[in-house]
Structures are given as C-alpha cells and as structure tokens.
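Archive transcription. Copying these from loose printouts into the bound notebook so they stop getting lost. Printout 1 of 2:
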Amino acid sequence: MLIAIQSVLCAGSGDNQQEDSEMAIDTTGVKLQDRPVAQIREEVIDQLIMNYSHGVISEQAFERRLDIATNSDDHLLLAEQVADLTLLPDAKYRAMWAQNFNSPGRHNQAHPQSAPTDCDRLVSVLSSDERSGPWRVPQHLTIINALSSVELDFSEAQFDHTQLTIKVQNWLGSVTIKVPEHVAVISDVNNIASSSSNNVSSGGPGQAKTHFIRVEGISVLGSVSISVKRTLQERFTEFANSIRSALGLTKS
C-alpha cells in the first residue's frame, strides 16, 4: 500500500505548478483581506502539509506554522506562513486528502435500510454503554444513567439532523461525549455534587461547524464530560506524516 502511494505521489509531484497553480495564495486578484478567511486557511494548510510531507520544511517549522494557520483569522498572517513555499498540492494530493478527510455525511449510505428516527432513549443501570462507529443520530436523545458509565462517540456518526438535543438524567454515574471538530456543543447541565466539563467550542466566526448539539439536564454525584475526539491540527499532522512515511522520509 505504501509503495503504491509513493509511486502516485512521485508521479504527480513534477507537474504541481502547471496543474494546480490555482491553489496558490493569489494576491493579484481580489484583495487578500476581502477573501473568505476559511478559504485562505484551507489553501495555507494544504501547502503546509504538501511541503512538510515532501521534506521542504522541518517538523518544528510545520508545527509552528500549522498552529498559526488553524487558530488565526488574520488574512496576512495566514498568507505569510506559505510565502516562501513553492511546492503546491496536486491532484494526487487532493485524492489522498479526500480519502482521509471525508465529509461529515460520509456514512449516509452505510445503512440504507434504517429509517431516520427523531427520538431515542438510552437507559443504563449498573452497567456500561457505548455508542460509536457509524451510528445514526436522532434529533432528540434522552440518557437515563444510574451507577453506570455511558460514552457517546460522534466521530463517525451519521447525523440525520443538523441539531441534536441530549437530555441527561445522571445519578452516581459518568457520561462522556466525544465529538468531531465540525460539531459545536453547548452544555446546560445542572450539577449537584457533580462535575461537568465542556471543552468543545460552541461555534463562532471562522469556525467550520456543520452540526450543533445542546446538552441539558441534571447530574447528581456524577460527571459529564464533553470533548473533541481529535483536533483538526492532530489530524493534519497525522495525514502529513503518513505521506512522509509513504515517500520514505523520516521525521526531521
């Protein structure tokens, strides 16, 4: 598999400039400041991954620039991160990108026989329950948890609705919710001798959020934890390193 990827990348690297010049940060047309910042960020990240994976910049430089690219909304600062890079993503790179970063609805055809549901309930008493993989997400989900552990992993879930409400009734148990980076979460859980944490953004300018989850209810002598399964920056780095490995390059 690695040999196949390597041959594909090497075959396409020679015609980057001619085939994909449109992916460069073009400052000759519309003023950079007037272009959508999300579009600029996407182009910058593509170029950073392409140049790091082909050994043009070091791992330290890649991580530093990628941190700026994923967190800044400054058009000029974003463009500066690739101003000295000439290697541009090609069609082969975009094909590999599509395989690794599919759209949130990539599982829409996974279970065509299953009809969407608007409401669902998960009851867990003195047990452990987990939902993960390509499971279908309802519009309303009620969790009743007593002396148990419940984990919801939305990383590969199929969303039939853009908004989801989770109502939690948690007694002496733990509820763990993990979401991908394209999902925004707002938590409104009342705690009684309990702990509750939400480390997921509720969405905002420059953030590509496609789905929204609201968590509400009550937790007594228990815990409710909400976090991102894996950040975009971690996924970008893993993707870049997979290309380096395919090309036979080690970390710098």
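Printout 2 of 2:
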Amino acid sequence: MKFKLTLVALATIGTMASVQATEISPELRKLTPAKTEAVTSKTVKKVENADFGVYKLLPDLALAPASLAAGSAEGTLSGRALVQQTTVNSDGVVKTDAVVRNLLTGELGVVTGRLSILANDAAALQRLQQEFGLKSVKTIGNKIAIMQAPAGANLTELIESVRKSGLVKEARLDVVEKLYKPN
C-alpha cells in the first residue's frame, strides 16, 4: 500500500513539474501581452531625487475644501480639492497635509502628520509623547502605536529625531494614497 501511494505521489509531482515547464501557446500570448518593465537609470534617478522615502514633495499644490475651490480645482485627493498655490513654499519642509508624489507609482498622496511607530517597550511610547510632543491616536499592544505630530512640525526632521532617539525600532511617516489591489 505504501509503495502504491509513493508511486502516485511521484507521478503527481512529475505531472506538476511538467505543467510548470510548459510554454504559453502563441494564441494565448496574443491575448495577454506580457508587461515587462526593466529598471532603468531614470527609475533609479527618480528615487534619488525623493524628498523622503519614495515621495517627492509638490510645494506648488495644496489641499482645500471642495466647496471653496469649486472653479480652480485641478482634481481631488482624499475628498478635498487640489489647488495650485500662488505663493510656493520652496523651503522643502514636509508638513501635515502636504501633497506628495510617489515616484514609483506616480500617484499623488497626502502626508497625514501621523507616525507609525514600533517602540522598544511601553515606557518608550510615553517618553516619545513627552519628548517630541506627540499625541497617541491608537496603540496596539504595548509596543505599536500611531501618533500625531504637533501642528506645524517639520515632519522629516521629527521622524529622523524619533529614529535617532533610541526609543524605537522603526518609525514611519504615514502618507495616504490610492491603494491598488492585485488582479
């Protein structure tokens, strides 16, 4: 009985291996064109020019309530209107509600001003709140938290200071952008 089961298992594995090794028929290849995207020097250069992570700050765009920007809106993002600013903030400071572009996907996003934090321990979360003026939005367990930065804070400097404090294992700045689901 064991010998028969072994033979059936080997036959099944052999069949699966041969199925995986078969090539797509020319008829099917016509229906589903292959999307191949090679990493080029342009792609790498784009990421090098990012302001933080894979995001590039767009200082000439701002978010406004849709009711106020009825005629001048260039689109919507997170339920608010995207408007062209007349005075451009060129200092490169990332603040809450800043509009950014993901250099990998090309999509626009909004900086929320929240930090996702994996702390060393529960006491570290309390010290972060005291030292950096962060407000706890939500905690999960005793080491994971989402915290809101103070109003008007330079978020890139804040996130670097939090990382260098030694109180966290990981800290990330949250950006809201369009979510794509795989087919």
